[in-house]
Amino acid sequence: MLTRRTLGLAAAGLTFLPLSRAAGYTPGRGLEIAKYDRPGEGSVNSYLLIGPRSVVIIDGQRTLVEARQVVALARGLGLPVEAIFLSHEHPDHCGGLRAITDAFPDAPLLASEPTRDWLARNGAGMMAFMRSIFGDRAPDSVPMPTRVLRPNERITLAGSEFTVDQLGPCEASEGMTLLYSEADSLLVAADLFGNRATPWLLDGTTRGWISELEKAAPKYRDVQTALPGHGAAAPAGVLIAEQLAYLRDFHALVQAEMQGGVVSDAGKARIRAAVMARHPGAPRVAPQPNLIELNVDAVAKELSGG
């Protein structure tokens, strides 16, 4: 059974956002950044890395509708699309990817080996499930990566040099592929962390996620600008610390309410109130209104070894 972030309908009525630099970003060597997201619950980011002579598209949105807005933004720049980068296999990042690869067929689709292999095994089933929810807003298939990125590989994108960092399983994915530009003090962070977002914890991988965040902290704590999969850009050290705090808080809250490996409805209500008080203004990465309660059940099972 698919357990990826495929549930929940996207809100109707997309907002077309103008190009702008990511918040707090200081351009280096001519590199510019633009972000597209559909505001509200279930919002997810795509980015354009804009160099002097080319553009790179980061991630492909949840459905074809949002992805076509990314295509329009890229075309409006009047520069060739050099490459398309897929950070990981979650459907909110690749569900609309077909619209982007079809629009720019000469641009290679870059992804890690774990992402490629997961899509080869599960992509058809994932997209069939997406079509059962979104109908024609989801394509029949997800495109397969045409170029595999290797850990620690150095690659030039939009005129800037990036190092590929491949993380292990975290945030419910087989792996998370990051791009780090030391010269620009820039980290394309995917879903290693969000910025004030209520995360998806239903796959029971929070211990591994905490471990990956702890390993990333000393490496990226001084990076000026991190581009998360959900929420606004900010310094990497701040976002890593906030994501760790959220997950550790959630563990403590669940452990305090857990009896026999489960949490009562009253306990879930207390956890929801505590989470919303400690982490206010955090839109859900998926639109389920009961995402916090679903997260409680999954984390209780994980912590109890179920």
Give a verbal description of the structure.
The N terminus is likely disordered. Helix 1 packs parallel to helix 3 and helix 6 packs across helix 8. A hairpin with a 4-residue loop joins strand 2 and strand 3. It contains eight helices and eleven strands. With 306 residues, it is an alpha/beta fold. 36% of the residues lie in helices and 17% in strands.
Total of helices: 8
Average pLDDT for all residues: 90
Q: Kindly report the spatial arrangement of strands forming the biggest sheet.
A: 1-2-3-4-5-6
Structural class: alpha/beta
Radius of gyration: 19 Å
Query: What string, H for helix and E for strand, traces the elements in order?
Result: EEEHEHHEHEEEEEHEHHH
Helix content: 25-40%
What about the largest sheet? 6 strands, mixed
* Low-confidence sequence ranges: 1-28
What proportion of the residues form beta strands (DSSP E)? Answer: 15-25%
Assembly state (oligomeric): single chain
**Count of β-strands:** 11
Shape: globular
Q: Measure the end-to-end span.
A: 17 Å
